[in-house]
Amino acid sequence: MYITQVGAEYAPVAKVGGLGDVIHGLSRALAKRGHEIEVILPKYDCLDPDLIEDLHLAYEGLQVPFYDQQLPCTIESGYADGIRCFFIAPHSDHGFYHRGHIYGEVDDPGRFAFFSRAVLEFLLKTGKQPDIIHCHDWHTALLPVLRWEIYEALGLNHPRVCHTLHNSAHQGLAGEYLLRAVGLDPARLMTSDRLLDRDRPHTANLLQGAIVYANSVTTVSPRHAWEILHTDQGMGLQETLHTHRHKLRGVINGIDENTWNPQTDPHIVPTYGPEYLPEKARNKQHLRRRLGLEEAAKPIVAIVSRLDRQKGVELMRHAVHYALKSGCQMVLLGSASEPWIDELFEDIRHQTDGSADCRLVLRYDEELSHQIHAGADIMVIPSIYEPCGLTQMTAMKYGVVPVVRRVGGLADSVFDANYSDKAFEEVNGFLFDDLTPKGLESALGRAIRLWFRYPAYFRQLRLNGMYTDNSWFGPAQQYLDIFEDIKA
To answer: Which residue segment(s) compose the domain that 179 sits in?
Structure first.
């Protein structure tokens, strides 16, 4: 099958968060199965060229309609981690992708609407007819609309479109001017059953348009698919999702086991696996030395997370104090998304300054993240909502027992040691429901007590997690099944 992945990110060359990891991991898994995979991205000025092999000019003279202009573009091509990538580089005063970063501009809707039109223009002019165009999140949400409304009649009529919702909190809202900018007819599309936002007058909701026009709609875990249909996690899209629920599926993400694998990880010393678990103790010792924690017969409780509201920052704060009060050591790594959150954790850092049992590192540090996974015993993930989550999966891979809130992909991948109906060898962590300190303590307290009182059972939970298959193997097959269904 010939599959074109289209998104705003692709790890490692253009990565902000989990979106880049997902497109990268899924693309590699599909390619390993023998399918023809290509990825199309904007040519950001912040791409890392050292990670792109054989970067060269692939097509020039592409003219992409935008308002009453034809913006010239060149297309460069190269290989990133074995996958062929195309990079769209417009030449205009707009400087769409010359901002020094990927997101965060006031004209983001226009930047990515242009990208969606440019992708389809590129496919049309080069005669490419993929079986599947798989587009991701709101940034490419206009692509299925454009394919049907404009490019079907122009001859790009073979591809079917699968659109994946990674986070429905971000929907791509704009005035109807944006539709005109890329050649769409607002009079036809600005209705509540198409792109007109149901709660905001005169506002185009791009993600809503993708749900309406795509042949298949997926989200990143089965539980989250149910949540966006039946709870406020649909973020106002519930009615549209219900109308199109026949094409909605939840497919849980996998993790990149080339990057997250304690048996090969270059950031940790020594490497280890389930067959030689004692080496994890040496990584714990190394982590303590790096962070200045004392050697003690205590578990290390960790939080490795973006520090924002979605991730449950108030419960993170409580987890720090509760773990220390319960005789544990505590390590937190993360950067804050808002000033008040930064102040919250800076205050905790000052309170625990000089402690032999607590370290807060309030920045992004890839190497330290790997070392915390290798050295920690318990990972706390108290998310308010979590479409999928990868931290619980990487934690289990490294023999860290996750303590998570029962939402989204967390509920689909973590099975409670005490209350799950899974077989003993499949339970791998602790869950809680209530978004309260007592709810968190109900799970974290059980994990801590197990570490102190029943070390053999705790060790078995570690091993269960390490043997859990959280790779892309199964999810890739589910996507292929979806692609075959809509291609038929």
So the answer is: 2-254+473-487
Separation in Å, CA 410 to CA 44, 59, 383: 33, 43, 9
Report strand pairing: 173-175 vs 203-205. Answer: antiparallel
pLDDT of amino acid 450: 98
Task: Look at residue 269 and tell me if it is in a domain.
Answer: no
pLDDT at residue 31, as a whole number: 97
pLDDT < 70: residue spans in the chain: none
Residue in this structure with the two tokens 């020594």, named with its chain if needed:
270
Q: Are 242 and 14 in contact (CB under 8 A)?
A: no
> What is the pLDDT, as a whole number, of residue 258?
86
Residue 260 lies in a domain: no
What's the CATH code of the domain at 408? 3.40.50.2000
Angle at 395 between CA 391 and CA 397, to 5 degrees: 120
Q: Are residues 296 and 242 in the same domain?
A: no
Q: Tell me the three state secondary structure of residue 40.
A: strand
Considering the domain architecture, whether residues 65 and 192 belong to the same structural domain is answered as: yes
Please list, in sequence order, all residues whose beta carbon lies within 8 angstroms of the beta carbon of residue 372, skipping any fewer than 6 positions away.
287, 302, 304, 331, 333
pLDDT of residue 27: 97
Please state whether 7 falls in left (phi above 0), alpha (psi between -120 and 50) or beta. Answer: beta
Please check whether residues 338 and 221 belong to one and the same domain. Answer: no
In a domain, 348, yes or no: yes
Its pTM stands at 0.93
**Is 306 within a domain?**
yes
